[in-house]
Amino acid sequence: MDYHRDRDRDRGGYDGEHGGYERRGRPNRRNATDIGTTYVRWMQNRRAAGKASRGSETERPSASYVADILPPAAHRDRPADTIPAKHLHSSLNKVRQPVNVVKWTPEGRRLLTGSTSGEFTLWNGTGFNFETIMQAHDVAIRSIRYSHSNEWLLSADQDGVVKYWQTNFNNVQSIRAHDDAPVRDVAFAPTDTKFVTAADDTTMKVWDFASGTHESTLSGHQWDVKCADWHPTKGLIASGSKDHTVRLWDPRTSRCLTTLHGHKNTLTMVRFEPSNGVLLASCAREQNGRVFDIRMMRDVFMLKGHEKEISCLTWHPIHSSLLTTAGNDGSMFHYLLDEQNPPPGIAATLSPYDSPNPSDASAQMLYPAHRVTHAHDYAIWSMDWHPLGHILASGSNDRATRFWTRPRPGDDSYTNDRWHIGQEAAEARGTWKKAEAHRQQQEEEMEDEDEGLVDQKMPARIPGLPGLAGLPGLVKLAPASHPIGINPERAQLLDVSGFANGMPPAPPGLPDLETLKKVFGGSLPPPPLVNGALPQMPNFANGVPPMPPGFAPPPGFPLPGIAALSPTPTNGGGIRKRAPLPSQEESLQAEMRQGKFRTAR
């Protein structure tokens, strides 16, 4: 948000002689965010309740007031100051796949994305550069949810499989939640002891988290259940279906409490407001979204303005009146529930809260407070706010993950960028250049390769010696094009370019084959006979001689009856395949037994 800084200085070193920073390496103009400075300013100026303020300068629309920016938590009564109108960065995988889910990690340091190829990708939450990638599922990932305790992660896929993950992305358990039906959504209970899954088999299932066992089934929808959410503090589940209805359920009795009508097409997402839990927002494959009040069991706001179907929505984690929706045309609209913002020529309407008869009043029409009409090229499938509420992340069918934040004071250049007026109009006005944007994207991809985690590759194995790959002292013959000592397979290479017939000469002092023939009269003697016949060669099982009595084989050596190990597959050239660091679960458990840690982090 807030303080966008150039990262050139971070890549350089301090030059004490000249009193400044010296730039090293390739220049980097990638935007970054520093939320810490805003919190420092807030802590410096805040006063206890009941005491007069210091009368500090408030933020004004001028670049000199960038030091007075405060975090969203400092102005809960001004959600308009947090609207993410500024594009920060676009992150792309080397092997690009549609991004189905985006989810910030609980501490906000990284963004986790799930793709149609079943991969988890981690992006840095400050510089937005690539960090690591891993194959989490075999098919498309449909939903990702963190527990309220921030210690567990659930992911669901197209095959109906739900996986448990620790915060270090160690896969603990995998369950088949629904047979032959994709799991479209998953949500934790407020206590994290249970979770619910919604699938295309017209049902939802409530599961016990600790044991992974199925407890009850919520049946009542007439078609596929596309979305679900659990109330942040109550035993209440909301679901949206292809039958055009929103239903509220009691998970203890598996009974449908009420059915909310209003949509005329397939529901795409339902979400409770996280701060108070009074409002329930829903969107469907139509141009209008709706906000329901669960105390009145009716819709109180209708979200208008989209020209295409609405694909997803998200609530702000701090401002309960800030709601963002995204459409199948790649547009992103931000609504303020306490501001109607009607366009010219359209009269304002009365809210049901202000009506003398709220039960009979129609829903109030709300229009976007800000529009980003070209946020993505194709449908936006998922959006998620940073836990501190200063960055909004979006994932789309155009294979891009984008980051958005509020503009700096006095910065109005975003109104004419390609995200607001389109690529062609921005090129005509000179606010966006295709060649420069392409070059910058290539530079950032190169930087991602430099700063990403090192590949977690297994040691390569030498053909003919299964299980003994990379042991010191093993020598592997190599072609003349390979010099000594730079083989990535960790076995020393021997240069044979000067050897006759590609074979090394015999050690000094040993007679060669021709000399031996002359000693025996021109030909080598035949082997000795045993009982008038040639000796038989021993017939070992699988070609491996048995071990001497009392001798243990070395680790990794194939025992008789066990097939030789195949070479470890490696990734194709140019394909980014990385995984997180190896699990340290055993060492962590040892520390926990000593009382140093209570829970795994």
Based on secondary structure, the structural category is: mainly beta
What's the tally of helices?
Answer: 6
Fraction of residues in β-strands: 25-35%
Q: Taking Cα atoms only, what radius of gyration do you get, to the nearest Å?
A: 32 Å
Q: Helicity, in percent?
A: under 10%
Sheet bearing the most strands, described?
Answer: 5 strands, mixed
Q: Total strand count, please?
A: 35
Which blocks of ≥5 consecutive residues have pLDDT under 50? 5-27, 455-493, 559-574
Mean pLDDT: 79
Strand order of the largest sheet: 22-23-24-25-29
Oligomer: single chain
Determine the N-to-C terminus distance: 27 Å
Overall, the morphology is elongated
Protein described:
Strands 22-23-24-25-29 form a five-stranded mixed β-sheet, with no helix packed on it. The protein has a four-stranded antiparallel β-sheet with strand order 5-33-32-31, with no helix packed on it. A four-stranded antiparallel β-sheet has the order 6-7-8-9. 9% of the residues lie in helices and 30% in strands. With 601 residues, the protein is mostly beta strands.
